[in-house]
UniProtKB/TrEMBL annotation:
This is Leucine--tRNA ligase. ATP binds at K749. The keyword Cell wall biogenesis/degradation does not apply. The gene is leuS. SUPFAM superfamilies: Anticodon-binding domain of a subclass of class I aminoacyl-tRNA synthetases (SSF47323), Nucleotidylyl transferase (SSF52374), ValRS/IleRS/LeuRS editing domain (SSF50677). It catalyses: tRNA(Leu) + L-leucine + ATP = L-leucyl-tRNA(Leu) + AMP + diphosphate. CDD domains: Anticodon_Ia_Leu_BEm. It comes from Flavobacterium resistens. Residues 11-156 form the Aminoacyl-tRNA synthetase class Ia domain. Residues 822-933 form the Methionyl/Valyl/Leucyl/Isoleucyl-tRNA synthetase anticodon-binding domain. It is found in: Cytoplasm. InterPro entries: aa-tRNA-synth_I_CS, aa-tRNA-synth_Ia, Leu-tRNA-ligase, Leu_tRNA-synth_edit, M/V/L/I-tRNA-synth_anticd-bd, Rossmann-like_a/b/a_fold, tRNAsynth_Ia_anticodon-bd, Val/Leu/Ile-tRNA-synth_edit.
């Protein structure tokens, strides 16, 4: 009976689907365990062998937990909204919903392209997903609840005093009773103080405008990354080297009215929560850096809007008083305030236009235009380029009253701190470089040194240690800590500063000027946003003919013919009916890609609940995710936003826990092994790799499917690949072969090094693929794919099969296992259980190979050994394990059979194989019980005929015996 993986795997995949073998229960006497994968975006390219790595690891763990008696939730779904589907729709004229559906379910798209389909590809690999709970973020029955969460955020505010979010109606009651003077809320910086009487006298529109300054999600004019080529705003992590990650289009900074999420309210909780979760230190550190907590002072520098003597005279002629503005600066080093040499504003800072003099206007505007083309991330990363422009304006030092020149420079970011820096070159390397670069120019003062006994002629002194402040009036002689406190106290006394904790974390922009995303449940009355009542959700994405922005620059939803809200009928109606009396315009932006992925793990808990995103009972049972596996590229964006939404929903009484993901593991990347051919420059002749030395060749990537495991190129396939290669000639090696070069790179279609799991499953079976991916190396590390290694793993499975079957059928017997049989089995039980708990899957596969080799050499076919062995193998190679279990006479799935129990006694050695030496040379071995004394060992050895033969009648001068170690006869 031969091992036929294709037949076996199809059989058991059908069985699992028909019997819902892996369906989790929402109430069970078993303990729960929730294992989650970061769900995929379903692109038309489908899966390559790198994609399933994390899924296989989570599946091994899920299956292991079922064997241990847990009620395991292991779901899968699709993050199906987003930019790629929309770009593809624009290029091909297809509807994004159609291409998304085909990408998931498989089929033929409008262009006649055959799409494998994510679902079919995943099923072929044999995952134990609870498919009954599948979610797709682009389905209305899912995004109905995303819209509901958005409304909850809109109707909430964050109380600093109690450190949590509350209903906005509670804040309104406070305003009605006492105004806002004593309210401690996370809100906009420019909120005006009002009394209860003033609030009650405001119009409804005035009240709404004020409440927008407090809501957890709000409309505001925001500096954004605008990508004209894509027609949308991009997040920082969607930009690489100043261009969009998708398409490579230029990105500029501009101000737009956007929806934003007040994630900054949760900065401290997001920071502290990292102490309570089992994540890698590198991911935690990434989040700490992104949150960016710093303690220091907020300092106000007064600046006059007199732009020059000419401007001042003009103002006086008109009998106008100069307007007074303040530059607010957050600094972590208030102890260095007397060392301020100049100030730098972000080019986007609101004050720039107000304070720039007429003489500097042209230079400042040109610099701002240039800077707008660089992303925040690029500006942060570029520490070498020094650029800036003097505004012509001066600020007043709060203590000395001297004039401090005000510059703009793109190393200062509008989104961090206050968008302004008090530059102290003697204590900061970047300020030092800036001051020296512009040294001698108008508006750049000499560097001041405020550190005693420190030479700053060559570099700044940035350390806080061993600091003694000098040339600083009342701070002279103080160390860093004392000078900091004294400076803050003095600033507070004169009303120009205060102690402050600051965070780098900015509120998250929550708008996209795109079509393929969640519609906002928002309509506008008098230009102010109103929420649609939750009972009328979902607000379904309308059909449009064009997915590009409208001719007048509105988002694609501006093309929708039916996109207005009728407040009497409570439904979406024709856009032409807008009368701003009972029918109003709907929001034209859509939610960003991270909206649906910020809460999806909760939907899996109760995926078919039509009325709630999940019931209280389901949420209380599953609580949160026990194990989350996904790529490290989501270290900040997705994981931070998810934690924010979870904490908000916890505040509102919906989420049962503060943190969504207890344990997080980042799988490494499987890299491709690219194949290269070498063309002689200026010719169409290709030289085999082992013949290129001394030749002037151009390396060209070639499809890896034209290359065998010995790196030999199939020349005929290569010539048929591209028209310009039809007439190619080849210089072969001594064996008449063309050998390609190899290089490990990212697996990518453009590198022609993609290997699909479908091909591997078809040739070797899914169990081979699963085992091989786990065998490649530690889960967290990147490793190259090498198809040549597949055959070894396939050979192992065939050897495993032969323990159970010969050509005539099942050969398993009821023989009592030997001590060696039991030792091999229990070594494996111990190793595999420890490895899975420690996520060291690669060493488990090695142990399986060792065990099968040992049992084969022992000629073991004992049921007492082979039944538990099938269970051990099951998490890794579930199809063959199910078949073995069935052939052994069992009628139910192996998936929930108890994991074998390790018995240490089988690994305790009772005998020892001693080497017996004569004058230090080993002549034979003898196996003896370990509990024998030296005298007993000597008696047995001396009587052994092999000893008598070696001695040949002589009597040894000395017999050296160390029990458990050596036997040596001397003389």
């Amino acid at each position: 009976m031969k091992y036929n993986p294709n037949e076996i795997e199809a059989k058991w995949q059908k069985y699992w689907a028909e019997n819902q073998t892996f369906a989790a229960k929402n109430n069970s006497e078993k303990p729960k365990h929730y294992v989650l994968d970061m769900f995929p975006y379903p692109s038309g390219a489908g899966l390559h062998v790198g994609h399933p790595l994390g899924y296989i690891a989570s599946d091994v763990y899920s299956r292991f937990k079922r064997h241990q008696g847990f009620n395991v939730l292991h779901p899968m779904g699709y993050d199906s909204f987003g930019l790629p589907a929309e770009q593809y729709a624009i290029q091909t004229g297809q509807r994004p919903e159609d291409t998304t559906r085909v990408n998931i379910d498989g089929g033929v798209d409008k262009e006649g392209k055959q799409i494998a389909g994510y679902r079919k590809q995943l099923d072929k690999i044999g995952f134990s997903f609870d498919w009954a709970r599948e979610v797709r973020t682009s389905n209305p029955d899912y995004y109905k609840h995303t819209q509901w969460i958005f409304i909850q955020l809109f109707n909430s505010w964050y109380c600093r005093k109690q450190g949590k979010a509350f209903e906005i109606s509670e804040l309104v009651k406070v305003f009605e009773g006492e105004g806002n003077k004593l309210v401690e809320a996370v809100c906009d910086d420019n909120v005006a103080i009002f009394t209860a009487d003033e609030w009650n006298a405001y119009s409804e529109d005035q009240k709404e405008k004020i409440l927008l300054q407090y809501r957890m999600t709000y409309l505001a004019e925001t500096e954004v990354n605008w990508c004209p080529g894509l027609g949308t705003v991009l997040a920082n992590d969607e930009i690489v080297n100043g261009v969009s990650e998708r398409g490579g289009f230029p990105v500029i900074r501009k101000k737009m009215t956007q929806w934003s999420m007040r994630i900054s309210a949760y900065a401290e909780r997001l920071l502290q929560g990292l102490n309570d979760i089992d994540w890698s230190e590198s991911i935690k550190e990434s989040q700490r850096n992104w949150i960016g907590k710093s303690v220091g002072a907020l300092v106000k520098f007064q600046v006059s809007s007199f732009k020059s003597q000419v401007d001042a005279q003009s103002d006086e002629t008109l009998n106008m008083k100069p307007e007074t503005n303040f530059i607010e600066v957050f600094t972590t080093r208030p102890d260095t305030i007397f060392g301020v040499t100049f100030m730098t504003l972000a080019p986007e800072h609101d004050l720039v236009a107000k304070i720039t003099t007429s003489e500097q206007k042209e230079a400042v505007e040109a610099y701002i235009e240039k800077t707008a083309k660089r992303s925040e991330r690029e500006r942060m990363a570029d520490v070498k380029t020094i650029s800036g422009v003097f505004t012509g304006a001066y600020a007043e030092h709060p203590f000395t009253k001297e004039a401090i020149p005000v510059w703009i420079g793109d190393y200062v970011l509008a989104g961090y701190g206050t968008g302004a820096v008090m530059a102290v070159p003697c204590g900061d390397e970047r300020d030092y470089a800036f001051a020296n670069f512009f040294k001698g120019q108008k508006g750049m003062s000499e560097i001041k040194n405020i550190f005693a006994n420190v030479d700053i002629s060559e570099a700044a002194y940035g350390s806080k240690d061993n600091v003694e402040i000098a040339n600083s009036d009342f701070l002279n002689g103080l160390n860093y800590k004392n000078a900091t406190q004294a400076a803050i106290t003095a600033l507070e006394k004169i009303g120009q500063g205060t102690g402050k904790t600051n965070y780098r974390l900015r509120d998250a922009v929550f708008s996209r000027q795109r079509y393929w995303g969640e519609p906002f449940p928002v309509y506008y009355v008098n230009g102010l946003p109103k929420m649609i009542d939750t009972q009328h959700l979902p607000i379904i994405l309308p059909e449009v003919e064009k997915y590009l922005p409208t001719e007048d620059g509105l988002p694609p939803l501006g093309n929708a013919a039916v996109w207005a809200w009728d407040t009497k009928q409570n439904k979406v109606v024709n856009t032409d009916l807008v009368d701003n009396v009972s029918i109003f315009p709907l929001e034209l932006n859509t939610m960003p890609g991270w909206a649906g992925s910020s809460w999806y793990w909760m939907r899996y808990m109760d995926a078919h609940n039509e009325n709630e995103f999940a019931s209280k009972e389901a949420l209380a049972y599953w609580e949160n995710v026990d194990l989350y596996i996904g790529g490290s590229e989501h270290a900040t964006g997705h994981l931070l936003y998810s934690r924010f939404w979870n904490k908000f929903l916890k505040d509102k009484g919906f989420a049962p826990t503060e943190e969504p993901f207890k344990k997080l593991i980042n799988q490494g990347m499987i890299l491709g092994t690219t194949a290269y051919v070498y063309r002689l420059e200026g010719t169409n002749t290709f030289v085999s790799k082992n013949k290129i030395e001394g030749q002037n060749v151009q390396p060209i990537r070639v499809d890896v499917h034209f290359v065998n495991s010995s790196d030999e190129l199939n020349i005929e396939k290569f010539k048929a690949w591209r028209e310009d290669f039809n007439t190619a000639e080849f210089i072969l090696d001594e064996n008449g072969k063309y050998i390609v070069g190899r290089e490990v790179e990212k697996m990518s279609k453009s590198y022609y090094n993609v290997v699909t799991p479908d091909d591997i499953c078809a040739e070797y079976g899914a169990d081979t693929l699963r085992l091989y991916e786990m065998f490649l190396g530690p889960l967290e590390q990147a490793k190259p794919w090498n198809t040549a290694g597949i055959s070894g793993v396939f050979g192992f499975l065939k050897k495993l099969w032969r323990l159970y079957f010969d050509d005539n059928g099942l050969i398993v017997n009821n023989d009592e296992p030997t001590k060696d049989n039991l030792k091999s089995l229990h070594k494996t039980i111990k190793k595999v259980a420890e490895d899975i708990e420690n996520f060291s899957f690669n060493t488990s596969v090695s142990q399986f190979m060792i065990c099968v080799n040992e049992l084969s050499s022992q000629n073991c076919h004992s049921r007492a050994i082979l039944e538990p062995l099938a269970i051990l193998v099951s998490p890794y190679a579930p199809h063959i394990a199910e078949e073995l279990w069935s052939q052994l006479g069992h009628t139910t799935s192996i998936s929930e059979v108890a994991f074998p129990i390790f018995e240490a006694s089988h690994l305790v050695e009772t005998n020892k194989e001693y080497p017996v030496s004569f004058n230090g040379k080993m002549r034979f071995t003898i196996e003896l019980p370990l509990d024998l004394t030296a005298a007993q060992i000597e008696e047995i050895v001396m009587k052994d005929e092999r000893t008598q033969k070696q001695l040949d009648g002589r009597t040894p001068n000395k017999v050296i015996i160390v029990p458990g170690k050596i036997i040596n006869l001397v003389g």
